[in-house]
Amino acid sequence: MRVVVAGAGRLGSQTARALAAAHNDVTLVDIDDDRLAALADRFPARLVAGDAGDPALLERAGAYTADLLIATTGNDDDNLVISLLAKRRFAVPRVAARVNDTENTWLFDHRWGVDTAVPTAAPLISLIEEATEAADTVALLRLSRAGVTVIETAITAHSRTAGRPLAEVRLPSGTVVATVVRGGRPTVPD
User: Fold this and answer.
1) Which end of the chain has the least Cβ crowding within 10 Å, N or C?
2) pTM for the structure as a whole
3) Does 89 share its domain with 129?
4) With bands split at pLDDT 50, 70 and 90, how would you rate the model's confidence at 127?
């Protein structure tokens, strides 16, 4: 499969590396020459420097022959433009895009050329781990179209939130606690 990955940050480079390891023909695009130079000698994919929002650059990266384009930049506007170009101008059959701000999830659909929206849950998980001092936080389910990630967090006896009422625990905006399990018994908080 021919894949173009736009954005060589952590998510983009890990995605490109995994796809290349699975014997796909991968091209990684990034606007940051230094970032690409740092990857060049140890990276199993073709690297192209430039703005993936530029149609000429996407053409040079192989968008016309790509089976999949993945927009993984840290900017939702850029990811939408890249996705729209991929789908409409280059007729890429499958387009996936990273959603950085969950409030923008509603934009990441077929109207913008996005077949699969991938919300970035890692920052949320990190914030919850920090708020609860729980290192045992796991993403259980991602509902990409809804921009929802269901996670499980274990609160240990040594956590600063242990024994405190849930109402006193400061959680990231938009967090909904669906179930609390104590002593093996699930309860739904008020």
Assistant:
1) C
2) 0.65
3) no
4) very low
